[in-house]
Write a structure and sequence with these properties.
223 residues, Rossmann fold, 4-stranded antiparallel beta sheet, binds adenosine-5'-triphosphate
Length: 223
């Protein structure tokens, strides 16, 4: 079943001086349960695709459908209820890690989703000791921050995962564990932006962003 469809989508942003085209001509179809790896050079617009899916960036032209329906403000709310975005910026908070969990799970959208057993299971799964919960988030290593972000995201019980470079600071064994975890659930739809070859697994659709959009650079190259 197709859950997300983009047709001929262009995105422009105003950088304060002028409207700048980020890309145009994006066609993308995502089926439920699919695992997709998005590759492409820095700045080409990969994260922008996640923002389009969540409705935080609107297309300047083209169409977005969610389960066959044209996406409007109401539908973007439905998507946000089902989707979790782990940002490339792993600095998601300050203060004790446990307080961060308490804060995230106090939001009305996440009410009732916190449970200690799942947290313990996920800490073990990703090789974190329970003591990490008492440490200040800002003092954790990059890899620890990434794993805490992953755990928070998993505990919100969503089924669409938008993962932006979530394994960049992990060692090889942990990269494998994280990718294994996201691959194992056939119900989850996973879109991962990554430069890690670890994501290039059998069954993963690899999209080279460079090949599916046009942008000013590619126009310049042609001319
Ligand atoms: N709100 C905005 N205002 C101005 N420029 C923006 C805005 N949002 C995105 N951009 C620009 O659009 C381009 C694409 O950004 P995006 O984050 O999608 O790229 P990316 O492919 O994910 O890059 P990276 O791999 O470095 O994360 C960049 O040049 C970025 O500076």
């Amino acid at each position: 079943m197709e859950i997300i469809r983009m047709e001929d989508v262009s995105v422009s942003v105003n950088d304060g001086l002028r409207d700048k085209l980020i890309f145009s001509g994006l066609d993308l179809s995502v089926s439920k349960g699919e695992k997709i790896l998005i590759k492409g050079r820095s700045g080409i617009g990969k994260t922008t695709v996640f923002r389009l899916i969540l409705g935080f960036t609107r297309p300047s032209s083209g169409r977005i459908y969610f389960q066959g329906k044209p996406a409007d403000s109401e539908l973007f709310w439905d998507i946000r209820k089902r989707a979790t975005h782990i940002s490339q910026d792993s600095d998601i908070g300050e203060g004790p890690v446990m307080a961060l969990f308490e804060e995230v799970f106090s939001y009305s959208a996440n009410h009732g989703k916190f449970d200690h057993d799942t947290l313990d299971m996920l800490l073990t799964e990703f090789s974190l000791k329970r003591e990490v919960l008492n440490k200040k988030f800002e003092n954790l290593s990059g890899g620890e921050k990434q794993r805490i972000s992953i755990i928070i995201s998993l505990m919100t019980k969503k089924d669409i995962f938008l993962l932006d470079e979530i394994t960049s600071d992990l060692d090889a064994a942990l990269k494998t564990k994280v990718v294994d975890y996201f691959m194992a659930n056939s119900e989850w739809t996973v879109l991962a932006i990554s430069h890690d070859p670890e994501w290039e697994r059998e069954g993963v659709r690899i999209i080279d962003f460079e090949n599916i959009v046009s942008n000013e650079d590619s126009v310049n190259k042609v001319n």
